[in-house]
Write a structure and sequence with these properties.
Number of strands: 19
Low-confidence stretches: none
Radius of gyration: 22 Å
CATH architecture of the largest domain: 3-Layer(aba) Sandwich
Number of helices: 10
CATH class of the largest domain: Alpha Beta
Structural class: alpha+beta
Strand content: 25-35%
Distance between the termini: 58 Å
Number of domains: 2
CATH superfamily of the largest domain: Vaccinia Virus protein VP39
Strand order of the largest sheet: 7-6-5-8-9-10-11-17-18-19
């Protein structure tokens, strides 16, 4: 029979060999905290078009441990309510809560540069596993974790209690932080946000660190690490790629309906300088979200199977439709904002600067704005005003 202790040690060793796990205290936490405890009441395994529910009660113990320690992100909720114990067989649905891959969890905690005495605010409790790792290091009274879904929060709180951590598990909108326990030395978000909420900056001590994923597309998002200054602003950079579910308060419904009707009336059309297919790549997608922060990218095909690509900004009632002829793309744009003009300017400047990677992006947050820039080119600069 598979031994949980040996599985935890095996996972810790694998994370160390991968260069993700570096701190002795965090290795001790990984080897001590039982991930399987935080997967109750079960998980959904991706089978392509459906999700197969798996629970500890209906699975061989050895197989259950293999699932828990295989290193994958494990979906724990679909459509905002469905859990594995309530599913009789394979189902369809959209993941709305998960146990993030241990490599991602551990890597983010390492990035926080934690030390004894630090007080941490976690946005997005999920299963509670990452909170448990931090409690193991800092002590339960110095970790506050906020979860917007009451059922998810209740399960995480029960798992944390069972693991011996009576920490501060709060049900609420994490975008508002948790001022009652502020100020914090570290803020870490396990959901993606369109922009770093200023509430997180305001609730962090000068010299403290805020870590969160920015972007609203399923890909093309970046992990921002900011240091809070004495003046109440925060500055830092995008330190790498990152992918998390969108914060529920900011989740955007997919563009639906008759796309041809939505794009029937264009103000003009032209040949593109850059193929819109580059928006399916990570860095160009990130740049597109900086240049047109409210835009959604939609992929479709016409009746003949030819690719169709769109940008829609519902708030600004604008669109860009892309049509291909052989390898030549035409863009039709409509509405008060020429979305593709804004995006294309950034992509052209990025290429001229030598296509710097995502970790070249700098970020400064103030109460009034978010400013992003890339040092290699003065034109690679985007300011998002907070209204």
């Amino acid at each position: 029979m598979t031994d949980p202790t040996s599985e935890r040690r095996r996972m810790a060793t694998a994370l160390m060999k991968a260069g993700v796990l570096k701190s002795p205290w965090l290795r001790a936490a990984v080897e001590s905290v039982s991930r399987e405890r935080f997967l109750h009441p079960g998980v959904f395994l991706d089978e392509g078009r459906t999700w197969r529910p798996v629970t500890a009660a209906n699975t061989d113990p050895g197989e259950w441990l293999k699932i828990a320690y295989n290193g994958d992100t494990l979906t724990t909720q679909l459509d905002g309510h469905l859990t594995a114990d309530r599913s009789g067989g394979p189902v369809v649905g959209v993941p709305t809560s998960s146990s993030t891959a241990p490599a991602t969890v551990v890597g983010m905690i390492e990035t926080l540069d934690l030390a004894r005495g630090h007080r941490v605010l976690e946005i997005g409790t999920g299963t509670g596993y990452s909170a448990a790792l931090m409690c193991h290091c800092l002590g339960e009274d110095d970790v506050t974790t906020v979860e917007v879904d009451a059922q998810v929060a209740a399960r995480a709180d029960a798992a944390l209690e069972a693991a011996g951590f009576s920490t501060w598990t709060v049900t609420g909108d994490g975008l508002l932080g948790h001022p009652y326990r502020a100020p914090y030395d570290r803020v870490i978000a396990t959901c993606a946000v369109r922009r770093i909420p200023y509430a997180w900056i305001r609730q962090t001590r000068a010299g403290g660190v805020v870590l969160g994923t920015v972007g609203s597309w399923p890909w093309g998002t970046g992990l921002a690490r900011l240091t809070v200054g004495d003046d109440g602003t925060a500055e830092g950079s995008i330190i790498g790629r990152s992918s998390f579910m969108q914060a529920r308060a900011q989740a955007v419904a997919p563009v639906a309906g008759d796309l041809s009707a939505r794009t029937a009336y264009a103000d003009g059309e032209r040949r593109t300088q850059v193929s819109p297919l580059v928006l399916e790549e990570w860095m160009p997608a990130f740049l597109a979200q900086l240049a047109a922060p409210g835009a959604q990218f939609v992929r479709a095909t016409d009746g003949d199977g030819a690719p169709l690509r769109y940008l829609f900004d519902p708030e600004r009632e604008s669109f860009a439709e892309f049509l291909v002829d052989d390898e030549n793309w035409t863009v039709r744009q409509g509405g008060p904002v020429a979305l593709w003009d804004d995006v294309e300017r950034s992509l052209v400047a990025w290429r001229a600067a030598g296509t710097p990677e995502i970790d070249s992006v700098r970020l400064r947050v103030t109460p009034a704005s978010h400013l992003y820039w890339i040092d290699q080119a003065s034109s690679l600069r985007w300011e998002h005003r907070i209204t």
